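Q&A log
Question type: sequence-to-structure
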Amino acid sequence: RYGSEHSLVGRWIDLSDGTKLVDWYYVGPDFEQHHQMRQADVEAIWDVGVDLAVDAMRDSLAVTLQRFEAAKAISITVTGVQSIADYRAVSSVFEALSQLVELRIDAIRGDILMYRVAGVSSAQEVARLLPRRSGLRIQSASDPAQLDLIWESIQ
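Response status: OK
Response body:
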């Protein structure tokens, strides 16, 4: 509703016995979670809500980091890069991913950029790190060592 991909909304009703009837709703880009409870301690109420959001975000965004020496490089191919502005935009998406230990360009052929990255264990994990509105669409991530993307310029 407000342009956020992750939202936590809560409400409570004070009951006559001093407890509160609490509803927490977490809404993420791919799913929703709901938790209802009865609790008197306000701090415990907040803890449950924050834990709900943190756990949901961890499950949807977490990746496995590896030591650089043990990390295998992952090849990333991006097609549809037509201009220097596209090149800069695509590069800035990858440079913003702090989980990547190393990012280098292997080749540029026509409208295709080929990167090599290290720091995560698979192409699927790199795909999960990409922001939804980055302009990069996943073409294939079935090979753990190869990620194929299509650049769809953001206008």
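Response note: The chain is about 25% helix and 35% strand.
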